[in-house]
Amino acid sequence: MKLKEGFLLRNMLGMGVVVSIDAATPVEGVITLNDTGIFLWKTMEQGETTPETLVRALTAEYDVDEQTAARDVEAFVAKAREAGLLAE
Amino acid sequence: MAYYKFCELVVEMDPQFSVLRERSKPYLVPDGPADISLKPAPGYLRRAEESYPHLEAQWLEYMWYATAFYRRLLQYDGIMLHSSAVAADGRAYLFSAPPGTGKSTHTSGWLRMLGDRAYILNDDKPALRFFDKTLFACGTPFTGTSPLGRNARVPVAGICILERGEENRILPLTPQEALPRIYTQTIHTLGEKPMERMLTILEKVLCAVPLWRLYCNISEEACRLAYETMREGKQ
What we know:
The structure holds two protein chains of two kinds. By secondary structure, chain A is an alpha+beta fold. Chain A has helices spanning 35-45, 51-61, 66-82, and strands at residues 7-12, 15-20, 31-33. Chain A has one domain. Chain A is built from three helices and three strands, in the order βββααα. In chain A, helix 2 (51-61) packs across helix 3. The longest helix of chain A has 17 residues, at 66-82. In chain B, helix 4 (103-114) crosses helix 7 and helix 5 (175-183) packs across helix 6. Chain B folds into two domains: 2-76, no CATH class; 78-232, Phosphoenolpyruvate Carboxykinase, domain 3, CATH 3.90.228. Chain B is globular. Chain B starts with a strand and ends with a helix. Chain B is of the alpha+beta class. Chain B has helices spanning 18-24, 44-51, 57-73, 103-114, 175-183, 192-208, 220-232; strands spanning 2-6, 9-13, 28-29, 36-37, 78-80, 83-88, 91-96, 118-122, 127-131, 134-138, 153-164, 169-173, 211-216. Chain B contains seven helices and 13 strands. At the A-B interface, strand 1 and strand 2 of A face helix 5 and helix 6 of B.
């Protein structure tokens, strides 16, 4: 599981905002992320990963149990996939 | 080459066709130096024709210059907002929405309502630019298919997202709520550096003026509701 190239994450208005900067893979709108989403995005930016790795990263970084982390990861991955951000 | 001034910037252009030439005329200035020089690459019209075969050359030229100018404007703390901007009593009210929603129809109602207290500053692509931390809407030659525009710069009273609705209703929007809607109504096919700059300006714009969402039908009542609410500016 990997992020596509050509996206930019920026903090603005107290949110994470992901936009497309590649004319070849245009995504019309913005995708907004909360703090967990920003953390997961940055983890995924480092390369190929799996949901399990993301859950481990999340529990290591935040004071959160594994079940909650798994739910957060699932929601994030679903959102990223729907927005066309994943190069499966 | 001729020199024009809009958004307080001297722009050098050489219009070949009548739409751009006529609409640029009110902005002519005697000489430079230019802040921005717009020179299309040779063969640009031929390439544009391939993308938009149904458009005449004069409209392709007009579109090229609009896009080129608004990309360059980002370097001057300015941004285009796809909207109809009406100036009323010296303040600008911007109504933004995807094409076909009724932006121009709504603002033309303001002219009927307010008479000579109001005019259309730019009916399609006004420029927004900060001067001394105040956000101004600026007339430009680039007014879309509509010829309506004026060489003026006016402080912004508010920005409103327009949506069709059965009943007239106006609600305040937070900058966070407005961002996704405003983002799609400006130039957002940009590389990394200009995108960074665009988002920085957009964030400042969204924090600088009151933001609204208007659900409206086509009626004088819709115009009155928008005007009276946005004029007060209280959210």
